[in-house]
């Protein structure tokens, strides 16, 4: 490359850095201490923009489930409060909760960044007699509760189970350098949480200030 080419390359990189800084000057980095606005987010896009559609709401806990209540003075049934159905999630007391997709249960987002970390609680019912016998005698179903760790991509909303095998593949596609560090780490299967946080530090996401 000649001198003029090097000069053009230098200014191209410098201009790109300036534009990047300018684009982020009116935004706030999400990880690790960003405070989301309290309210009900009707969609994933509202959450990513930090713009809940509903700010005036209450929580009602009933039968192990969480219900989102809002004032509805114009209801033809003369109700004072109405339930919000099909919300993506809500923010309360600086914590964000995402609807699990079934009934009125929500997961608290433990870490929010380029990768969002949360736990899911799965409840399965089975008949212990039917599972271990073919005599046709049924007994009272037993509930089995299982906890699983999940991560979700900020950009796409795609989720996958947070285990070494899945995370290893993810890093190999998204951050080769970090993937190589993980592979060289001792007790690598126990280090995936640390490397998830490291990934969020290396790949910051921003929300535009309003």
Task: Write up what this structure looks like.
With about 210 residues, the chain is an alpha+beta fold. The protein has 2 domains: about 35-95, no CATH class; about 115-210, no CATH class. It is built from 6 helices and 12 strands. The protein has a 7-stranded antiparallel sheet with strand order 2-6-7-8-9-10-11. Strands 3-4-5 form a 3-stranded antiparallel sheet, with no helix packed on it. It has a two-stranded antiparallel sheet with strand order 1-12. Strand 8 and strand 9 (about 115-125) form a beta hairpin. Helix 4 runs antiparallel to helix 5 (about 175-185). The radius of gyration is 23 Å and the shape is flat. The chain starts with a helix and ends with a strand. About 15% of the residues are buried. The model is unreliable at about 10-25 (pLDDT under 50).
Secondary-structure element series: HEEHEEEEEEEHEEHHHE
Task: Bin the helical content.
Answer: 25-40%
Report strand order across the widest sheet. 2-6-7-8-9-10-11
Output mean pLDDT.
Answer: 84
Q: What percentage of the residues does DSSP assign to strands (E)? A: 25-35%
Which regions have little confidence, pLDDT < 50, spanning 5+ residues? Answer: 10-23
- Looking at the structure, what is the overall shape? flat
| Count of the separate structural domains | 2
Radius of gyration (Å): 23 Å
Query: What is the helix tally?
Result: 6
Number of strands: 12
Oligomer: single chain
Structural class: alpha+beta
Question: Largest beta sheet, briefly?
Answer: 7 strands, antiparallel
